[in-house]
UniProtKB/TrEMBL annotation, chain A:
<dbReference type="GO" id="GO:0008115">
    <property type="term" value="F:sarcosine oxidase activity"/>
</dbReference>
<dbReference type="Pfam" id="PF04267">
    <property type="entry name" value="SoxD"/>
</dbReference>
<dbReference type="GO" id="GO:0046653">
    <property type="term" value="P:tetrahydrofolate metabolic process"/>
</dbReference>
<protein>
    <submittedName>
        <fullName>Sarcosine oxidase subunit delta</fullName>
    </submittedName>
</protein>
<dbReference type="InterPro" id="IPR006279">
    <property type="entry name" value="SoxD"/>
</dbReference>
<dbReference type="InterPro" id="IPR038561">
    <property type="entry name" value="SoxD_sf"/>
</dbReference>
UniProtKB/TrEMBL annotation, chain B:
<protein>
    <recommendedName>
        <fullName>Sarcosine oxidase subunit beta</fullName>
        <ecNumber>1.5.3.24</ecNumber>
    </recommendedName>
</protein>
<comment type="similarity">
    <text>Belongs to the SoxB family.</text>
</comment>
<dbReference type="GO" id="GO:0005737">
    <property type="term" value="C:cytoplasm"/>
</dbReference>
<dbReference type="InterPro" id="IPR001763">
    <property type="entry name" value="Rhodanese-like_dom"/>
</dbReference>
<dbReference type="Pfam" id="PF01266">
    <property type="entry name" value="DAO"/>
</dbReference>
<dbReference type="GO" id="GO:0000166">
    <property type="term" value="F:nucleotide binding"/>
</dbReference>
<keyword id="KW-0560">Oxidoreductase</keyword>
<keyword id="KW-0274">FAD</keyword>
<dbReference type="InterPro" id="IPR006076">
    <property type="entry name" value="FAD-dep_OxRdtase"/>
</dbReference>
Length: 98, 417
């Protein structure tokens, strides 16, 4: 079971309190009806599914119930950081050499 | 390839078993092949086997980063059934089921296919409606499936608890008698032996690190940890790592990879005569010929390549098993493990040509690919050999996620995903 730090509660809590909500930073079009089939497919179905660093959404269901984002390594399952929803994708990761 | 037979056993017994030959050879990779298959699991090896036997294409290499059958082929719970709801799924899974019957003879290798029956339990009125709908849809597609009362279910599987006092009482069940189990390792080994005997190169410990393409976009080969290997056609059959390989060719996939766990108990005398599944309490169970109870758990909720999973997932499944079979509450579990499954948005596989000329993909089998192994290999070999899908896998395109022509088994595959 993962230990996840909620950036709102500022506490590390067990995974059972959280619900994974898929890949982060996929913006929904403001004009969905005007989307081409290709763009809709990219938004709705295509995922990066990386072996390595993933940016993903979590929801602290049984806590503050808020959505937030996390950076995790999908090979080790270790969290690198979590940050609040709406904050930009971190340009530099803690501990990363570049 | 020397034929296995009772006579061969007697002959070898007479001379100290010194005459058995290697089941498949381990050649050095050539510079170029007609076809490269990425991934030596059941589906990849079956593809190579049918390329050789059905289409006469034997200049084939199957590249495997680890050992043969060491991925999900060796990690699954070996359930075989074809009671899927939609016509497209029924077509491909029953194609496989028909090949399972007789596969041991075809391969001259005992894959231990045992049609012991797969029984799916209903615990509430919605289960009854869904499972009865499956029974009818299956029958219309010529697939056997029948409805049982709780008493009939209990007769078919005596340790099943049908007490009305149970927290989730059994109110009925759907039974596919042709469903059952097989020996997963033997499937990989049998196909490997058959393919190798016909000239296919099986190259283990050879990880694909890149896919090379010509200026016109067509595939020219793959970069591997053992150097560049050329091929005009490359088939990707890499299960949980399919999207990683496809990314190397510049194709982004509608896939996400999750850990899926399974576990086995200490071995006991025969007690579960069939496969029992329940979507509502989320558990399924069968008994191996060694006597272990083989139990399948669910996926974790997050993308991962760690081949492990959360303990609470196993705990949840065992809660359900004890609910269905109170007789097992004091059984000891021997070991558990995880595999990485690639899941599509509609929970149906992708077996298709790709936008890249010469590149083919067979992936997205999610939590239930083992049952399809022979059928998947058979139609994928056709797709590669003819550069055109077989009618059975024609609906399983990549493009369906753009056109919207989904095969939406997500809520219908008769298994909790």
């Amino acid at each position: 079971m993962l230990l996840i730090r909620c950036p709102y509660c500022e506490e590390e809590r067990p995974e059972l309190e959280f619900r994974n909500a898929g890949e982060a930073h996929i913006a929904r079009s403001a004009n969905m009806a005007g989307e081409s089939d290709d763009d809709f497919e990219k938004f709705f179905f295509i995922r990066s599914n990386p072996k390595g660093i993933i940016y993903e959404r979590w929801r602290h269901m049984h806590g503050c119930a808020r959505f937030f984002n996390a950076v995790r390594d999908t090979v080790t399952d270790k969290f690198i950081m979590t940050y609040k929803a709406g904050e930009p994708k971190p340009a530099k990761l803690p501990g990363a050499s570049k | 390839m020397k034929k296995y037979s009772a006579f061969a056993i007697a002959r070898e017994a007479m001379r100290g078993h010194k005459g058995w030959e290697e089941q498949w050879s381990s050649p050095e990779p050539k510079k170029e092949y007609d076809v490269i298959i990425v991934g030596a699991g059941g589906h990849g090896l079956a593809t190579a086997y049918y390329l050789a036997t059905v289409h006469g294409i034997t200049n084939v290499a199957v590249l495997e980063k680890g050992w043969l059958g060491g991925g999900n082929t060796g990690r699954n719970t070996t359930i075989i059934r074809s009671n899927y709801l939609y016509d497209e799924s029924a077509g491909i899974y029953d194609h496989a089921l028909k090949l399972w019957d007789g596969l041991s003879q075809e391969l001259n290798y005992n894959v231990m296919y045992s049609a012991r029956g797969v029984m799916m339990l209903a615990h509430n009125v919605h289960d009854v409606q869904v499972l009865k709908r499956h029974v009818h849809a299956n029958r219309l597609n010529g697939i056997d499936n029948e409805w049982l009362t709780p008493e009939q279910a209990n007769e078919f599987c005596p340790p099943l608890n049908i007490s009305k006092e149970a927290r989730y009482p059994v109110v009925g069940a759907a039974l596919q008698r042709r469903g059952g189990t097989a020996r997963h390792d033997a499937v990989a080994w049998g196909y490997a032996r058959g393919a190798s005997a016909r000239g296919v190169h099986i190259i283990q410990n050879c990880e694909v690190t890149g896919v090379k393409r010509a200026p016109n976009g067509a595939v020219t080969g793959v970069e591997t940890t053992r150097g560049f290997i050329g091929a005009k056609k490359v088939g990707v059959v890499a299960a949980g790592h399919s999207s990683v390989i496809m990314n190397m060719a510049g194709v982004r996939m509608p896939l996400e990879s999750y850990p899926l766990q399974a576990l086995v108990s200490e071995p006991v005398k025969p007690v579960v005569p069939c496969v029992v599944m329940s979507n509502t309490v989320h558990a399924y169970i069968s008994q191996s010929d060694k006597g272990e109870l083989v139990i399948g758990a669910g996926t974790d909720q997050y993308v991962s390549y760690s081949q492990t999973g959360g303990l609470h997932i196993l705990q949840h499944t065992l809660d359900a098993i004890c609910e269905m079979f109170p007789i097992f509450t004091r059984m000891k579990m021997l070991r558990s493990w995880g595999g990485i499954v690639d899941v599509t948005p509609d929970r149906s596989p992708i077996l298709a040509k790709t936008p890249v000329p010469g590149l083919y993909v067979n992936c997205g089998w999610g939590t239930g690919g083992f049952k399809a192994t022979p059928g998947s290999g058979h139609v994928f070999a056709h797709t590669i050999a003819k550069d055109d899908p077989h009618p059975i896998n024609a609906p399983f395109t990549i493009e369906r996620f753009r056109t919207g022509r989904l095969i939406d088994e997500a809520a219908a595959a008769a298994v909790a995903h």
